[in-house]
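Margin note from the TA: students keep mixing up input and output lines. Inputs are the sequences; the output is the structure of the whole complex. Example:
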Amino acid sequence: MLAPFLQILILAACSFCSLFVGVADISPLDLFSLSGEQSGIFFVGRLPRLCSILVAGSSLAVAGLIMQRIMQNKFVSPTTAGTMQWCKLGVVIAVVCLPGASPILRVGAACAVSLLGTFLFLAIVNKVRGQSAVLVPLIGIMLGSVVDAGATFFAYKFDIIQNMASWLQGNFSLVIAGKYELLYLSVPLMFLAYFYADYFTIAGMGKGTALSLGLNHAAIVNAGLLIVALVSSASVVGVGNIPFVGLIVPNVLAIFKGDGVKNILWDCAWLGALLVLICDIAGRLIIFPYEIPIGVILSVAGAAVFLVLIRSGRRYA
Amino acid sequence: MISTESLSKKYGDKFVLREVSASLPENKITAFIGCNGAGKSTMLNIISRLIPASEGCAFVDGKKVSEWDSRKLAQNLAILGQNSHNSARISVEDLVAFGRFPHSGGSLAERDFEMVERALKMTGIEDLRGRFIDELSGGQRQMAHIAMSIAQDTKYILLDEPLNNLDMSRSVKIMKLLRKLAREESKTILIVIHDINFVSFYADYIVALKDGRVKYEGSSEAVMKSEILSDIYGMRIEIEEYKGKKICVYYQ
Ligand SMILES: Nc1ncnc2c1ncn2[C@@H]1O[C@H](COP(=O)(O)OP(=O)(O)OP(=O)(O)O)[C@@H](O)[C@H]1O
Ligand SMILES: [Mg+2]
């Protein structure tokens, strides 16, 4: 892997580019003499967009990593386990039941529902006998689709589908200052994950190993799922459903650097941020001046990586 | 000291371990022998709190296993289960270092690094340190797991069929290492082993299980008898003397 210094340099360079891509023309030189309109676009639109991309990308990649360790399955992630879809359902419930719900309340509702959903998923997975590694995410995707359909149905029924549009498809173009800040909730969670990284690695080595080292496996799994649910909820409420980051990034890194959570957590956060950033820039440039939503691009990339992983599953899963 | 008091384990209503009361000698190698399904792993797993007992209890240093704080117990007792293959993709060095977890809580101190180095050296797998365990051969992976248990540096070391997958020279190396740990570092070692001749050469004490009961128990000298072994394994086993050691002949 690259030296941390180089990693930061690359990310900084891409971030810099991202700030100056868009319909409204702002060049780096303009920064010194921003007109009122330009400074509005820059500080209300571009900068928050960049920050939300960095935080969502890195935290979702880390959430995926934790999930894969505690479930001991390479194919699960907030997307393939249905966690994101449960979050969406949680938001719909919050909007329907408490129309004026503040964003923090929505995150709370999303988190509660997605926790329930993820535990339900775990329970179903534990019931399926002779489960193969690939069957687990398929169950998650199926369950997720059903929940997603349910959320959309309720959104239609209660006529809040316009509100829902952004959650149905993650989209950074809707990010503006004042509407995404909850996402920063994920930052301390990532530090928490780093602090307890070894616990997640050991949980990934199995119940027996964890117990023989004096750790409570179930407690680690619960704590991990709580972090995953919180990160996913913050992301869904803040910027919408950003798919597959948690699947692609940790798996690609594990091939080179192994499964040790502490060893790859930083790389994971870095690559997650970089991946989403690059996909976002690409989405803005491909059909300029229009935008392809990030969710579409990541779905294409994610599906491709998922297929490759399944095909080489024997070796790395 | 490790002991059990009318320890029983049942699955459904079938007893797989029945009223086992034993107290095992300190600073010695104790071998558990018996047929497949006799209950050896069950007994080791209960003593090391990996599974709960149905009735009775196991004691470590006079305290019920269920009453030990799990981490404290892990500082005193290491267990390598029969099926502790994990599919995680971590390096040998990291795996062995996780053996230090009960002591270090995650941040390795000077002494932890020393113990990891020592365990790698004692088992002779220093050259594998950077390799991922999912890319090792079965025997190499087994050695790495043994090294992890040794790095844990506990008073009690429980190993369930540690010689699985190992070639002769590695098997001898491990048994010599265990003997050294028992003699020189006052470790108490409990080991499940199927190769009866290794038991004869290295074990100080033998617990022979049959159908979930302790059928024979005693010093190696006392248990290594043709009638006893024939009874335990349900086949004719003859014993020959070779340079003052007993060799079991059972291949035909
Ligand atoms: N989870 C379980 N559910 C039901 N029965 C079990 C379970 N685990 C073990 N058993 C049964 O308990 C008995 C003792 O098993 P145990 O693993 O202790 O045998 P063992 O002496 O270690 O055998 P081996 O030499 O093959 O390792 C066996 O008959 C086994 O079928
Ligand atoms: Mg066994």
